[in-house]
Amino acid sequence: MRGERKKLGLGVVGAGMAAKPHALALNALRDRVSVRGVWRRNRPELEAFCAEYDFPAAPDYEALLADPEIDAILVLTPPNARESIAAAAAGAGKHVLMEKPVERTTEAAERIIANCEKEGVTLGIMFQHRFRAASKALAAKVAGDELGALHAVHLVVPWWRPQEGYYDQPGRGSFAQDGGGVLITQAIHSLDLMLSLAGPVSAVTALAATTGLHRMETEDFVAGGLEFANGAVGALMATTANYPGGAESLTFNFDKATATLTGGNLTLDWVDGRRETVGEASKGGGGADPMAFPFDWHMAQIADFADAVQNGRQPLSTGRTALAVHRLIDALIRSGREGRRVEV
Fold it and tell me: C-alpha distances in angstroms, 80 versus 28, 62, 312?
């Protein structure tokens, strides 16, 4: 039919724990996105996943890259597997949408980003917290300069992950697979959202540690002070040692109002006494089940990526925007390790 939008052809690599909200989102987007094939190394688990969500199973990754109807690859593997997968996709002219983080290290992330730019393909990184209704409402007010100057930011991520069933999984909480602990695996979403609303951080002073509640190689607790490039100051606390886990909160103190994002809800307390709320009833994945959240945010971000590819623009969350949060995490960990103020 004339004028009908062509669906984005998509190949999916990886079908583990992180794949469920993506699968639900892709099924809800069948009028916009066509899943042409899914591949993962474990064949029985691949077939079970494809049967559950009615997706075709691919014989191997090469088959996805060779399919001329596939425009983009969605990469849902652990971070340690992404660089070669992204390089092969870019080399085949496929656009790339990847789970966060970009990779385990900032250096590897920079290589992925540079390679996608060299090959002329779009790179998007999944930071779905930007796509919550509350986040978008606050972003619009910040962009419209409705709140005045920003002076202070407070971020708390009081999450819980159990040793059994989570950190006892092979590679979980290790540098070799994940690249780090609570910052790069859990709090990275809130850190990205914070930077998207407050602007870049110029320097940090932090403490990073592993509590006695977990047996893991990387950190499960970080606290720190933040100095923003615009002159604002801030503080953060992020942990996976806070049983039973709670919703993350992000508070911004502006001239005209204090804005608080708690999970999927926004409260604006205006200095003239008004209170304004934008919200959605949802869980946030802060407890023992990391996937206890709706798929609406994934759906909105995948739709944004598809529109970006089809209209030749950059998506809202790119490899370049993701580098800012990678560099912030590096600075926080370095500050905690060296016991000093570190510039980002």
Answer: 29, 19, 29
- Among residues 196, 199, 197, 195, which one has the least CA distance to residue 230? 199
Structural class in CATH, domain 8-127+299-317: alpha beta
What are the tokens at 139?
């972003």
pLDDT digits (tens, 9 = 90+) for 177-220: 999 999 999 999 999 999 999 999 999 999 999 999 999 999 99
At position 211, the amino acid (one-letter code) is: T
The C-alpha atoms of residue 18 and residue 6 are separated, in whole angstroms, by 27
**CATH code 3.30.360.10 region(s) in the chain:** 130-289+323-343
> What is the torsional sign of CA 53, 56, 59, 63?
negative
CB of 191 within 8 A of CB of 200? no
CA–CA distance, 290 with 18 (Å, rounded to integer):
9
Instruction: Provide the pairing of β-strand 233-239 with 249-254.
Output: unpaired
Going by DSSP bridges, is the β-strand pair 72-75/8-13 parallel, antiparallel, or unpaired? parallel
Domain with CATH 3.40.50.720 in the chain: 8-127+299-317
- For residues 249 and 139, give the distance between their C-alpha atoms in angstroms, rounded to a whole number: 16
**Around Cβ 334, how many Cβ atoms within 10 Å?**
15
In whole angstroms, what is the distance from residue 145 CA to residue 164 CA? 47
Q: Tens of pLDDT along 31-76?
A: 999 999 999 999 999 999 999 999 999 999 999 999 999 999 999 9
The CATH superfamily label for domain 130-289+323-343 reads Dihydrodipicolinate Reductase; domain 2 (3.30.360.10)
**Helix, strand, coil percent content, the chain, rounded in steps of 5:** 35, 25, 40
Amino acid at 110: E
- Pairwise CA distance, residues 205 & 306, whole Å: 39
- DSSP of 265-312: EEEEEETTS-EEEE------S-SS-TT-S-SHHHHHHHHHHHHHHHHT
Q: In degrees rounded to 5, what are phi and psi of residue 252?
A: -120, 125
Q: What is the DSSP code (8-state) at residue 74?
A: E
Q: What is the pTM for the complete model shown? A: 0.94
